[in-house]
Fold this protein.
Amino acid sequence: MNDKKPASGITPPGKSSDWAALGADVLRLPDRKLLQIYRLLEQVGDKPEVSGAFEAMRPRLTTLRPPRRPALSRLFFLPAEDMLDDAEHYSRRLNRICRSTLSPCWQAVKDHIPAALQQEVYREVSHVDYRDGAAIAVLCEPLWQAGVEALARVITDCQNNLKYKISLFGRDDDVQRQLDTLRQILSVAVRIEKLKAALPPRPILDLAESHVEIIRATLIDLGKEDAALTQPLLLVLASRMQRPGELLRMLSEVRLGGTVAEKENLTREMSGYVVGNLLRQTGDFDRENPLIHGDPASLAAAAERLTDGLNSVNDTVQGLKDKEISAKVKNARAEIGQFVLKNICADVDKGLTEALFGHGGALPSNEDVKKAEQFALALRRSSKLAGPLGIQREVTAKINEARQHVISNTLATLRDTPRNRDGSMNADAQRQMFNGLRMVEILAGSDEAERLFREWSAQYR
Amino acid sequence: MTDQGDSGRTRKMMEDFAPATFEERGVTVPFTTPLLSQARLRRDQNERFEFLLPNFTAGKGTYVLPWKGLPSVMTLTLHDRLLFEEIEQLETHSPEQIRSCALSVQATGVCGPDAATRASELRDQDSQYLVLTQFILVTELLKLVNISAADLLRPGMTADDSKRVARQALAKVASMVDIPPDDMTMRVDQLGEAVAPVGLPQAPKSGRLRTLSDRLHAFAQGTQHFADTDPSEAAMLGTYVSTVANHTLTLARQRIGRLDAACRDARQIINDAPKLHKAIQEYVARISWLLDGWEFLIAMWESVRDEPSATKQTTITDISRLLPMIPKEEISHATENLDLDAIQRMQKKWVRVNQDWRTGVLDMDAVMRLESLKAAMG
């Protein structure tokens, strides 16, 4: 399509109200057409008047979730996105970066990056799929390279000019450490982004042989260049893994170049980071944190991730021979255990029963059955964690309770639902029987579900 | 067939891996136990059921196990236990019969509400399509006595009027070969049932297997595009998958073409219905066997359409291990040159084993992923 011509059917509006009206008109179109127009509007760029059109389209876009065209600042910080924490969850001395640092940081560095380069990168990126990590890595390389130098200048300016520093970041000296972490990450940004594109999405659960090979090759290449360059890459990678302990194990097996002392130092620092980062995330479980008020299955999945992570660093923690860290890890497990009991197990049986049977004798909708499944899955996940967290007795008791509720309610439904003329179970009763069996299968396993199926089928055939 | 590669080692070619016949390849059963996913069912020399398990060894070959041995090796979902009971009741085990069995078990809700709803929709679509196919056959017959579909739907005619005219016209057709009108209706019913899975070419909507062959075409293009653009070694697996898909597609389209040609002349229905019925059954069965197993793979690939390339790489590996191999009797030159030895090495390298079968505990997340694919299948 010729860029100079307007898209067919769209007359370019002038005022921002016209753009908003256009956005509202577009809502009447089918999904495919709406997305085409969304992409065309994106090419108009970051103009304030166009935001009205996006605002009007937002409810549909929330459902369709088209890939977003990232702002240049977002592209700049992309390699460090796994290291970012919100202000209320940010922990110092962990090589993490606080999100509130990003805005003033961008204000400062963009003045040191040539405007032509910024425009060029932004234009190039608009021609590729934003989800294509490898392509983004290649196109943004000049931006990140310029960013390393720009950040070094900002750090120096902050050191030499207190007023400048305070006006941008306030008085906290920790910001300079954050800027330095960011600078280190940007210095290996292309390798980080290429690696991210080649590995499974976060949280990385399992690595294939090919993935291990890619990580090893990248570490060895970087190590040959300068062993210190491996650290920022490892920090990002460890933050993306569900079992970061596996990365530490891999690190101990790879020859990175540099001296033995350097390697030992790197391993110690990475172990400290991995354990510290897991403890930080566990700490969030204990606070009033709006992020963790999700459905029980998501909460259980989060608890599972952390427990899995803690289990993966067992060897590392023992190797550190640090009584304080060992005690912290032990406490972290206890905290997760309490969290699971308090937030996941407490009322899950009631939620499950309500979703499946709380409809005045009518069949639950598909959505209700899925909700009940989520409750049952949360309990099942909790039972997997119960051993390492020392809450086996409580979780087993809760599963039994939930199972009993499902069985007694299903039996009541089978008893109360009228039979077919030939005495067989009617379609609704049969469906409710299978709904109940499904929950029992999730909670107590397929053998128990099959036993009940035979029993109920014989009794209510 | 083997040949010597540059290095002197023996290269495994397509024929080394291919089963001799479709029966030897086995029919795909849509189990939800992750290790049984896309297992193929066949009978052994003693006519007992055995399963070929492509997922069991994570890319190191295909295990063959008798059904009785399975529960001692892995925990099976309730869905799979009930499905197998249904399968045991069948006298023959064609892809169409297995599909019908699977849909009836799926419709109970034993593998989740979405899969149940989808099964009910598909069964409804099948019966509606059967009615449509039979209607088209009737209109083709009526043309022989100069009655068109429009004659049945003239302004002012009631539904009963239309039925009466159609009955009279069919009686006229039946009288041409001196058979009772009811026999003619029965012929139409039987032919309709036989051809409905593929559908007639003149139908306003394609039949299920004809649609599947179109989706296979899009799948072959999609996986080839992946092979052309992916920078990793998994691109090689994309080429392999696309080649086998294209080969299958060519064969399926040939059969569909022959079926369409066989159905073209409505006079055969009155002159030699048994011969036509047999020919249609054979063509449809062949098409069904050729496309058996592909629907699940297409759903797998479509489910990662918007995912990052790493997810696509893993998925193409999984798909490559589950590919329905074309039997030797059907193999053509199109796939002869694939170095399957290299492909196997690549598969092992890219596989991620995330089910620990040794614990005997079902991975419910993996089970539910399979169930969601069932809910997405056409």
